[in-house]
Amino acid sequence: MLKIIITFLVFGKFAYIVELDSTYEAYYESGISERIEYRRVKVLENEIPEELRALEVTYTPYYNTADFEFVRVIRGRDTLYLDTEDIVDVLAPPDLGGTIFWGERKKILEIKDLRKGDILESKVKKYGGNWLGPTGVDKYKTPYPGYFNQIVLFGEEVPVKKKVYLLEELPEKPIKFGIFNGKIRHRIITKDGKKIHVFYSKNIRPYKVESLSPSIYDFVPKLIVTNIPSWNEMSRIEFHRAEPNVTPNETIKIFADSLCKGIMDEDEKIRRLFYFVADEIRYLGLIESEMEGYEPHPAWLTLQKRSGVCKDKAALLVALLRAQGFKAYYATTAVGMRVENIPADQTNHAIVAIERGENYEFLDPTIGAGGRDLLPASEGGQSVLVSREDGDTLRTIPVSPAEKNKVSIYIYTNLSGDTIHFVYLMNFDGAFDQRFRRVAQSGRQRMENFLHNILSEVYSGVVVIDSIRFTDPKDYSDYFKVWISGRAFNSVINTSDFKLYRPVCSKLTSSFVYFLRHLNSKRELDLVISSPQTYEVKEFVPLAKVVEPLKKHVSFGKEQAYLFNFETGYFVDQVEGARYFLNTEESGGWYSLTTSFVFSKKKYSPVEVKSMFKDYQNLQESENIWLIFKGE
Amino acid sequence: MLFLSILLFGQYIISKGDTVKVSYKEYRLDDSLIIAKEERKILIRTEEAREYFGTIIFPYDDSTETIEVLYARTITPEGDTINVTENAINRVAAPLVDSYPFLKNRKELHISFLSIKPGSTIEYCVERKIKNFDYVDGIEYFRSIIPVEYGRLVFHFPQKLGLRFYKGNTEICNFSENLRDSADYRVYEIEFKNVPEIVKNEWGGFPPTHLISPYVMFTTFPSWDSLISYISFHYRKLEAIKPQKMELSKLKELSKKINSPEWENFKIQGYVPIDRNRSASFYTMTYPEKILRIFSSFEGLSLALVLRYGYDTLNLIPSLSAIENIVLYDGIRFLFPIQSEEKVLSTPYEGHIALVLSSDLNSYSVEQIGFRDVLSETLFIDIPRKLISFSSWVPSSRLLRSYSWSRRSRVDFEDAEKFIPRSKFSIYGVIKDFAASLKYENVPDKPYFISGRVKYKSIGSQIGKYLILYIPEMPKIEPELFKNGYYLNRWDVSKRNVCFIVKVPKGYRVKYAPQPVSYEDDKVSLIRDVEYNRGLVIIKQSMAFLKRYFEYEDLVKMTRSPEFVNLTSPQVIIFERKR
What we know:
The complex is a heterodimer of chains A (632) and B (579). With 632 residues, chain A is α+β, with helices and mostly antiparallel strands. Chain A is 22% helix and 36% strand. Chain A is built from 13 helices and 35 strands. In chain A, the strands form 8 sheets. Chain A has an 8-stranded mixed sheet, with no helix packed on it. In chain A, strands 24-25-23-22-29-33-32-31 form an 8-stranded mixed sheet, sandwiched between helices. A 5-stranded antiparallel sheet of chain A has the order 19-18-17-20-21, covered by helices on one side. The longest helix of chain A is centred in the C-terminal third of the chain and has 17 residues, at 606-622. Chain B folds into 3 domains: 15-219, Immunoglobulin-like (Sandwich); 221-245 and 281-404, no CATH class; 458-577, Jelly Rolls. Chain B has an 8-stranded mixed sheet. The radius of gyration of chain B is 28 Å and the shape is elongated. The interface between A and B is large, with 98 and 93 residues.
């Protein structure tokens, strides 16, 4: 009975469960492998989820193969084998928002009339390497020739009764393995003289993805098997693969000279070359080499075609930098997921490393495009492997601290009649520079609309913007700044004796923090934000006009994690500039209201998220404040 | 949220010199073949235009069409010609094939232009040949996201084909047309010059293209009756196949039937066959299938073809291109089943005209989809007890079934906070405790009803002798954000009723309360009643939109009216401590 209850509780709300997911894999000297994947699924609902309406496998011709051996439906005592002639074999749609055309294909088999209680079984055979590579003389190969490696997740969004991964070890090239994010059992058996590793788990609870949660590779039990001996070896392989294409030829040298003409300062040269590659090379992945996905295109070709993906952009920048005498190297990293410290193919992105003194400086002309910083703050803390002739170890990109990624806004508010006059000085530093600059790069009108929308959300009444100035989006000499002056109507409540105004600093601060709406008290997974970051909005009001200005200071937070702060204060001289902006002759100083949020980390545990949620609510409730202005 | 907006920006262009210099399209029709040739020259000046036009996609169906690239090249500012290489022309499966393998013939031709620099011109010419068609029907738009300097559209067709045209919004550009006959053929030629670009409203409310772009709609259907007959003919055939009647042993046989070219053709073509760009979208391709499944699963439902906003059978040629979607009608309500939820009311189509097919599919009637979507809320604010009791009738997005958050697991809306979060009440003071419950979640005939209580440490802001209680204003609309098109009354309810009952604390008197408001015209109805009754202040506010789309000028007029401003401005009740 208990079993029935538990089964109902665990499985009852799922449309299906995986009864068995079993894979047998054997690898060869070359690093390629052969694998058989068997899967048995039980349908629990009448409404069939989309992923069971069709089964699909992907493969890349000339590199690997994938074939359904059978797909069958078992209903009671009947078994129906689906006709594999109905399999549809198509060229897959381009990846990454329609930008990557590397020749991947899909075999899809539609499953018709599946019903509650049915068992769906499938067996798939795969052969070849385990990455996307479209062409080449050798039909089957792996990105690290002679080496095998594999990543297997032990968990799905539905319950899995049993998952088994069996790996037949090649005596000449034994494997090592690492288990991460939880438990996976392991034992070794010998069959027909073969050593077989058995990795298995039973009754695996389903995982649930929450908004802004980490990649599933960072929290679902994960097995990495590999026979790549070291990071050094990987670094060497990457070096020899990239080197011919990152070595500058005459075209690259001439072009680099033309870009850097007249520039003496080394940092300035780096910036000039970076901004060219970031802004002028379009993100597009076409087949140009035998190892797409790994081998960068020759720098001259990327320059000529003005297009490429991350690896090609990185290679072009390396070549341009080398042409100007910098010690620049091609480097690989991972975006959106952690790299475990076991040498295996865990990267999905390429950047640039410049050796300066004993350290490397990292540059990312792909994700960093459109921003002032040469490396987006979002990549701080990630592992990176620099491609060197003698190899290199796995390194870590330094984290960009919260104070460097800052929105700071000064608002000067004055009341004239029933109209609020305002001046905004907005500074977007670090990670925020790229976000706001990108808006401005789309044109003045777009930026104006964008700012109008911000202010329209902040003020209850009608907003009229009199003037907007902002940094030229292509001027990367300083972080992005915006200056606005305008008026808000109907934002003041008139009584017979006085006027009421609700300061906007708190509302404005909250409107900038994209992840606040993802906070809740029921969080189960870590919350990951783009980078440590700070927000500070100060609103100044002429002190002489405020009746009984309140002194208030509330602060909520956890040390080294986050801080929500709201405080009021008086200033006499510090905001001298405000008088000029508002063109008033206020005397007696200014009353200030400051809201500041600091998020010191990129990742927050569920406990921290819950406490952040509570503290944010506390702040919202505590910062409700009205200012009484003297009547006229 | 601000950052969400930034993330959503995606590919967006405010033209800074980017221009469609020449746009030429030619249809040559005869009884069994359509040849559509498209040529364009586009001047690229900005990165945004480079990204947007850098790869041009042509959806097609390789079972009925062929599409060939006659040329595709980049002319650099220096005058060099860079032809698109073979590896930059890719024919891939349409993304929806993943879910619907029987649509394996749906393909996309991607042409990626190379060596684009600011000042480059991209040029291409593609030729599409279409065979096996029952009718000709489509729509051509002349406006793009960048200005069009010069365009020409030509139809060559046999007179006996009975092709008819309907044009709209031609006043937006310099437009001229010419119809001439030669032997058995007729030539209809359109020229358009200086068409301004479409500038999107980024904060929602982007109007459908047919409201803002000059266009020509064309069809060979002689009447609405014939069009409805055509659709009914197909539905009648499909309706006979009821999945629940299937037996496993007959599955293979049935599968063959389902995969018959006739069935595929219907599903693929949907109801907008010539408008290939549109028919490649998910909705058009698969929606009829979903509708049919529901239609055939429940008795008493009718199929309703919703026309695009502003269209009526009385003023339009009978064209499949005029149909925006297919929904269901139960005799009272229009049902809009989208992919993972089934809404009882057809909120997205309020104000549209629908052609409702009779249940036997033999006749149809024309109905207006009325405005029904109402949010009603009552709050009792008991300041002395530091307590707010609330109840809310949630707008019409009631779900017939539980909502599927993920594709694999199902999560029921058991949690009232999903509808009314605690944070909504933080404006009244410091919250001590919050509780809310959802009623009628399993009673499809009743709207969701949520009630709850909020206990506070303190309510309102005390400043000296004054106690200030915030009364939330009605949602504001900022016309400036919609000046490039229309405000679309779509994201929210069409009518909102909110009642505040505030208990006056002892020792205080009401110093200030909002003024009453009353206004109604053909677009909006606004009411605020303020009543004082036995120590209570009762404020009833109501805002109802009577139209679906508002043009900028109307929006300005409406939002600048004193009544609208009053209702959407911050309001408070101020209590003054008695001496």
